[in-house]
Amino acid sequence: MKKISFDIPEVDMDERGVSPVIGVILMVAITVILAAVIASFVLGFGDNVSQEVQAGASISYDAANDEVTVTWVSEGSATQLNVTSSAGSVSSSPIQNVGDTASVSGATSGTTITVTAFDGDTQTVVAQKTVGQ
C-alpha cells in the first residue's frame, strides 16, 4: 500500500481569538457612543450652550492730554459696545456703530478702560487696557 501524507499548515495559536475580541470591543464602544448621543438629546445638554458676543475695539491713550479713545473696529455679532473707566468720564457710551468712537477724559496712568460688547442679553468683555503702563 501506498502511504498518503497530508501537509497541514501550521496555525499560530496566538492569533485565533483576536478577531472576536476586537469585535466585542467595537460593539461596546458603539453602544456607549449611541447611549451618550441619545442621552444628550433626551436630557437637552446642548440647549444651555451660549455663544460669546464677537466684536473688536481699539483703545489708544494720549498721555499729553490724559485722554483715551476707544474705536469700534469690527462688528461680529455685537449690537453695541459699552465703555467704562476706573477714573474719568466717558463720552458717547454706548457706542452704536462700527467706526464710532468714545473718549475718556481725565484718564491718568493706571486707569483701566473696559469695553463690553452686547447682543441681546449676552455680554462679553472684548477689550480691557490699563493705560500708561
UniProtKB/TrEMBL annotation:
Q: Where are the transmembrane segments?
A: 21-45
For whether the record's keyword set contains Transmembrane helix, the answer is yes
Q: Which residues form the signal peptide?
A: none
- InterPro entries this protein is in? Flagellin/pilin_N_arc, Pilin_N_archaeal
Give the Archaeal Type IV pilin N-terminal domain ranges: 16-72
Keyword annotations for this protein, in alphabetical order, are:
Membrane, Transmembrane, Transmembrane helix
UniProt keyword Iron, yes or no: no
Name of this chain's protein: Type IV pilin
Its source organism is Halobacterium bonnevillei
